[in-house]
Amino acid sequence: MERMNPRETRRVSVLQVCAVFWLFLILILTGMHGRALADDKAIESLKETGKAFASVARGASPAVVFIRVEKTVAGAPMVLPDFFRRFFGDPNNPFGNQPQPQQPQPQQPNKRVIQGQGSGFIISQDGYILTNNHVVGEAEKVRVKLLDGREFDARTIGTDPPTDVAVIKIEAKNLPVLPLGDSDSLDVGEWVLALGNPFGLSHTLTAGIVSAKGRSHVNIAEYEDFIQTDAAINPGNSGGPLINLEGRVVGINSAIYSQTGGSVGIGFAIPINMAKAVYTQIIKTGSVSRGYIGVMVQEITPDLAATFKLPDTKGVLISQVTPGGPADKAGLKQGDVIVAFNGEIIPDYSPFRNKISMMPPGTVVKLDVIRDGARKSFSVKIEKMPAKVEEQAAAPAAPGGAPDSASRLGITVTTLTAELAQKFDLEAGNGALVTAVDPGSKAAAAGLRPGMLIVEVDRREVRTAKDFDKAFEKRGDKPVLLLVKDKQGSRYFALDVK
């Protein structure tokens, strides 16, 4: 084998180094080019998202309206210190925005006119508009302004305070319309846009995502199933549409969670599917009729789940069945746990209540229940909720002293008499009346209050205070299940007595 001389060896080495250098340079340039291409793609993607927002805004804005309302109120204006005004708002302004008091007329020295504003959106070419009840519900005059500058007087067709939905109408033809979507199909994380007139700034657009669905217990409305979004919603946005990237309305902007009055990224919108059900009834009849099956239900706590031997806390517990009502006719009983509605799992109280209330009377629904550990199905025919519902007042204060007690629970009980039933506004009958509850006790923590009547212990009837004591003593350290009645109805309590 022929050997290379040193000069040839050096020449090869130089060539190798040059080859490696150029290869390295090519790799660097290729990588830079690749990163540039990636950056370009990212920028183009952002541009496309921006174009999508702009396209939706152009299509939706003509159907979004600016609503001004007026109401006459009596009395002199209230003046609050700035500190309270900052956190609680202006008590002279029920519409949630800047009031503009007018000078009182000489013949009406104790009256003044306040003005408010909000938003809405057109859903029919002949002028029907969806908005919030809290925007127009108490207004004496409603004025609507369109994007093109046209203004109309509007009349209120109907309102539904329990859902905070209202329908108004202007007299016009061939109006731009916003199509309604399906709020049930929304996914958490999906882009949504909020349109409205915050602080009087006409036709403002904000963008965000769906932060959560099915929000309840926020004390905004009686029937709550809110879409939560981080799209900025501010005073004046109320009644405006929450739309998806298809340009369809998925919710009605209703409220924000804020200690300052401004947006902190937690806004709530009424699902459009709920609003559609309300709108349909208002258009047909001018009012809303709700479904009714004649049960009182309560949420299932971990203690109740353990007592009823349930796998989890999903569903609702029937604490009372109205005799002769739809549920009673179908065979449902006190102590049944409803776990599914037409095959759909019931997570807790609010979704179940909303579903029943939105069902038209005459509709037959399938309810799956767990009874004594076994799953059963019942067909229940929805009836119209009774028009007049009696207001339930809080239980009165307890009298001092009582002959019988269950000290481990921290309560004092006595046998119900006709006099005590009258005093505590209870139906005459049998049971152990709670007359005192020790502060800080397990009973107090669970929600037991004086004036409540214990009628069952561990699913067995209690007729007297002695019956209660005997039943309670037999439990030992095991959790006890109480069925309790008050003016609001019946409910279960599961108490750990250890």
- The total count of helices amounts to 10
CATH H-tier superfamily of the domain at 183-285: Trypsin-like serine proteases
Q: Which percent range describes the beta-strand content?
A: 25-35%
Tell me the structural class.
Answer: alpha+beta
Describe this structure in words.
With 498 residues, the chain is α+β, with helices and mostly antiparallel strands. Among the domains are: 183-285, Thrombin, subunit H (Beta Barrel), CATH 2.40.10; 291-384, Roll (Pdz3 Domain); 404-495, Pdz3 Domain (Roll), CATH 2.30.42. It is built from 10 helices and 27 strands. The strands form 5 sheets. Strands 21, 22, 23, 24, 25, 26 and 27 form a 7-stranded antiparallel beta sheet that branches. It has a 6-stranded antiparallel beta barrel with strand order 1-2-3-6-5-4. A hairpin with a 5-residue loop joins strand 2 and strand 3. It is globular.
